[in-house]
Amino acid sequence: MDRNQRLFVRERLQLIDLLKGLSDEEWSAASLDEGWTVEDVAAHIVVREHHLWDLGRALLFKGKIGPDQNDLLRREKARGRPALLAAMRTMPPLVFRLPGPMALGNVGEAYIHHEDIRRGALDRPRLAPADLEPALWAALSLFSGRSLRKIPVKGTVALVWPDRERCVVSVGGGKHPGDGSADAVLSGGPGELLLWLSGRKTAAHVQLDGAPALVAVLREVPMNI
Fold first, then answer.
1. For residue 99, how far is the Cα from the chain centroid?
2. For FRET with 127, which of 46, 54, 71, 161 sits at 20 to 30 Å CA-CA?
3. How many domains are contained in the chain?
């Protein structure tokens, strides 16, 4: 098991510990994922890891052929919360446990959904563990391209982990300047940047500065990974 796999397992077990102590009312609390409760997020984790084919078909056909995503969530929730927790504790199949980009992506995904639950109506914030932050920074390279691909304004965006790291991403067909300069700068801790780029903008503690037109679009365009 490599370092990223160990971080993923730790994030998962910490989330399970949190969920085990929730009341019925707290299971029904809103998460950062718009329209989803804490229980919905837990069900999504199970569907993504244990019923990936069903989820892919649901997202592709949107319920025209077979169940849609909401049907899959209802199916898992109907099995009861103990079954949800047991499925979450059972680590995902081998394809999700491969080292390299897959393990890194899973760390990012696990962190995002952990924070979806903690920073929603439950209001159980935490400090990101120091040993997790380098992995989240590395995961940004996997997520930033997908989340910024719909930006219609040409330019460059610098992602900055203050006093630590900086990378520049081209958006809207803009060209990478090669000298590290950028039209806009998005700065914050790696986990905060990841939350912002995954669409949790109001919950992420970041600072965005730069060219007004590009900054305005970055604030307004929905992000998704």
1. 19
2. 46
3. 2
Q: In the chain, which stretches have pLDDT less than 50?
A: none
Rounded CA gap, 198 and 217, in Å? 15
Residues 148 and 186 in one domain: yes
d(CA 223, CA 225): 7
Q: Are 130 and 161 in contact (CB under 8 A)?
A: no
Please list the residues that pair with 186 across neighbouring strands.
159, 208
Report the CATH number at residue 12. 1.20.120
Task: Find the domain containing 13 and state its range.
Answer: 3-118
Give the span between the Cα atoms of 3 and 7, in whole angstroms. 6
- Residue 225 lies inside a defined structural domain of this protein: no
pLDDT at 176: 67
128-164 residue pLDDT tens:
999 999 999 999 988 898 889 889 999 999 999 999 9
Is the distance from CB of 81 to CB of 37 less than 8 angstroms?
no
Distance between CA atoms of 180 and 159, rounded to whole angstroms?
11
Clarify whether residues 78 and 171 are in a common domain: no
